[in-house]
Write a structure and sequence with these properties.
Layout lengths: L3 H15 L6 H7 L4 H7 L3 H21 L9 H16 L3 H10 L11 H21 L12 H18 L6 H18 L3 H14 L2 H6 L1
Helix pairs in contact: 1-4, 4-5, 4-7, 5-7, 5-9, 7-8, 8-9
Amino acid sequence: MATKETIKKAFIDYVLTEGKRPNSVYVFAKKQKMSEADFYDLYASFDAIEEGIWTDIGQTVISEVKAQDVWAGYAAREKALSFFYSFFELLKRDRSFAVYSLKHAPKGLQTPKVFEGLKNLFLNFSDEILNEGLESGELSDRKFFAKRYKDALWAQLVFVLHFWIKDSSAGFEKTDEAIEKGINVAFDLFQRSPIDNLLDYGKFLMQNGSLKEFVS
């Protein structure tokens, strides 16, 4: 009997063998010795299969990193790094599919359908670790901008994904370097800076009338 797992494996095998998706659900179902009705009981489309594969990878990584004994003691930056390293380590097992999926994804400003599940999962995960960083004071709670930190991390994940599929270095060591540098730059920007201190000071002076007296 077909399951979501067997359909995903069969779909991956098909697209990597043929270099394209099946021409129709009928053709795919027949090849798997199942009816169209059985297919639609599990997935609404080929997009849904591909989306499920990416979402499952993200969920597996989140479950694995959170199960680490050291997880609770990590700062937000370390948790982000742990996710990124683990994500690409796990993705090595399905690199051929990842390359196929990324190269065939529609280009444009909107997130392709097949990545929507992963994106939502990642943004919720990012929200969680970033909120911890804001509460601990590790990150600067800037008005308007703090809510966009998670979008910056998603953009970083997308960037590294495209970097990784082109990376020809041994063990994808350049990808590891891109992760380290990218996450560190992002979190350096998320943290308090001299500019934040200057703005806080200016706000204080305005509220207490000192700045107004100075400039008048």
